[in-house]
Amino acid sequence: MAGRIRRRLRPLAILFWASLVLPGAVAAAIAWNNHNRTLAEADARAQQTVSILEEHALRMFEAQLGAIAAVEARIAGMDWQQIGTSEEVHRLLRSVAQDTPHIDGMWLVAPDGHGANSADFFPVPRVDTSSRGYFQALRRRDEIHFGEMIRGRLKGNLNFNLSRRRASADEAFDGLVMVTISLDYLANFWREVLGEGPHSVRLLRRDGEVAAVYPVVDEPPPPLARDAPFFAAMAGREAGTYSGRAEADGRERLYAFTALGAFPAYMVVGLDKETILAPWRRDAGVLALLAAVASMALATLVRLARRRERLLAREVERRRRAEHSLIAKEEHVAALERVETALRRSEERFRSLFETLTYGVIFHDAEGSIRSANDSAAQILGVGVQEMTRRDTADPRWDVVDGQGRPLAPHQYPVVVALRTGRTVRGFSLGTYNPKAGERRWLMVDAVPQWLDGHERPSGVVVIFSDVTEHRRAEESQRLLLREIDHRAKNALAVVQAVIRLTRADTASGFAEAVEGRVAALARAHTLLARHRWEGADLRTLLDEELAPYEGGRVQIEGPSTILRADAAQPLGMVVHELATNAAKYGALSMPGGRLEVSWELATGEPGLELRWTEAGGPPVAQPARQGFGSTLIEQTVCSQLHGSIERDWRPEGLRVLVRLPAGCLTSGRRSGEPSPQARPGVAPDLKGARLLVAEDQAALALELRAALLTAGCEVVGPASSLEEAARLAVTSRLDGAVLDVDLGGRMIYPVAEILAGRGVPVLFCTGFGEIDRPPGLEKAPLLRKPVAAAELLATLAHEIARAARGPGVGTRSGS
């Protein structure tokens, strides 16, 4: 008998060693997976950061090239004696340097290498730059030269420059125009993008010379060695990532690099690995601690079981010897009492450990019924332990679904699978309804079968699970955001399609004009939402802009003056957009005779806003069989984001919607609406004989503008598709006005606009951006949003040309 007991002890010994090894192995596997995921997320962050810095650098360099072009246009025709003695040229250079935060200075260098004029000194001290790398490079060939970091000879500060030859008719070397770039500006911007931590940024030329570096240094750093990891990583690639240890501070970093467009340079961002992995090390420590606690708990349980087996073996042997005497029997009884006492104490210690675990633990018997559970399980499931033991596994109140939200059959439950197969089920994701919280909770479940010696089937199952609801909600929010972006893009196309289908006209030109006006109204609605992202927005203006495509007597909007808070304007605009899209697809606005009434009032009982949406005259309406993503987005936006409520009444004659918003969505401020740019009473579009410069880089739009102006009798100069061409035409052509695209080939048109304004030529800007900051002196120049209606374009041009003829006014600056 003792031999049988010893044979039973062997599995316990194996279980004992397994309890010491398995939790640590599981924790190590989780930590390794988290380590790789942390590095992958850091890699993505580094690539995103280098893309942001690349875009900023390209815009900065393009602005500097625009400044160089403007200066070249100003000194065209001047010899170097005139340039060196011109205070006007000095003031121009100083104005450009002072108005542009990233420009440290501007220099005009004569063909002999001596400085002729600059933004900082007038007259310029005699400084010979003929030995500088940029001078030698530009003397050999005509290019845009990207300089390395140097210390200025006059100002003594660290900088790098962007320079190019001065334009000449015979293409011979005739000096150069140079812009020096402020390293403090770059360092401040890079610091804001990178945030806290010993991260680094380098702006490198392709040959390894350093143009700029962050953190800031006192002296120009040496160029990268040819065997540096950067050169191996960039071989044959324009962008990528690599790891390496910095020579300057010895820290290991994860680097991301990208080429700066046509410039012979790379932007390199280095994220400090120690900072990246700090949260992972903290989490790994917590995992190690949990694994140690779990190992200790399991080992304690196994040791208690082994001790119990030994006690029982000794007691059996003692009982066999005491069978022949009453004294032996009494001792036997006493020993049994001692064993039971020890067992009770052991069970108490186990119960204490069992109840203090933060994971949910449930014990099932061989039939799958619940026998016991800890308090953590009751809190996670929202069901008391006693209630659990009375529920069957297939009880519908569990409302169990799989990780994708599909109903899970009882035979697929982890506990049932473990009982049926005898194998452990790990990492099974499921959801169950928590009646106390009134919501579904998501669990990560392990089901471990229990065995008794001599049995072919498990004697029960221990289920251990954790609550991963919050983690899942975070992932679901990201997926919802991606779906929202995709859905809103498709909805915008659906509204445009509905406008085209519902537009009626007797002639093709009338149809085109109607469609053009409505599509422009839709574009203005989106511009309003973008412009009011950080300000209050007038509710009526928001509704007018959003419902403008459906005007013509079919839409009626009524309500008192109401200003929405900034954080409520855009969400409510999204709700109105969804309702309007649905009405255009399936409701009253899908038929020519349909009508829509939108009204609102300020609630008197509980402060807030009540907005009513009433459709009539459309096709018969019925409540949809399932809730689509658009309805879900409306519900989430009103109830969760705006903390309001929504009621929908699916009447056959038309949908009625009541939206209630709390007072926190409103503000008492008032804002007067901006006048519509096409509303210019009294101006007749008489433009016959007017010479107009057109600057537009999109070929189709340029042809459309040219055709509209030629039809009105204008003479078109251009169209110019590049900043250099536009600047040349602005200087050399006789002009009565100009139509300028704000973003011309990725470069701002403002240097050309300033040249025209200096000549007294009225300027009209066109753009597809939501908001732009116009340069000083041109803040009130007219701005038209794309797509631009032909009638609006001609009326605005006629108005500006007529005003310019009367004398200097808004949007122009006097000068020759």
Automatic annotation (TrEMBL):
It is an enzyme of class 2 (transferase). PROSITE patterns: PAC, PAS, RESPONSE_REGULATORY. It catalyses: ATP + protein L-histidine = ADP + protein N-phospho-L-histidine. Keywords: ATP-binding, Flavoprotein, FMN, Kinase, Membrane, Nucleotide-binding, Phosphoprotein, Repeat, Transferase, Transmembrane, Transmembrane helix, Virulence. Residues 691-801 form the Response regulatory domain. One of its GO terms (molecular function) is ATP binding. It comes from the Bacteria. The modification 4-aspartylphosphate is found at residue 741. SMART domains: HWE_HK, PAS, REC. One of its GO terms (biological process) is phosphorelay signal transduction system. Residues 346-391 form the PAS domain. Residues 426-480 form the PAC domain. It holds the Pfam family PAS_8. Its EC number is 2.7.13.3. The chain crosses the membrane at residues 254-272, 284-305. This is histidine kinase. It comes from Marinimicrococcus flavescens.
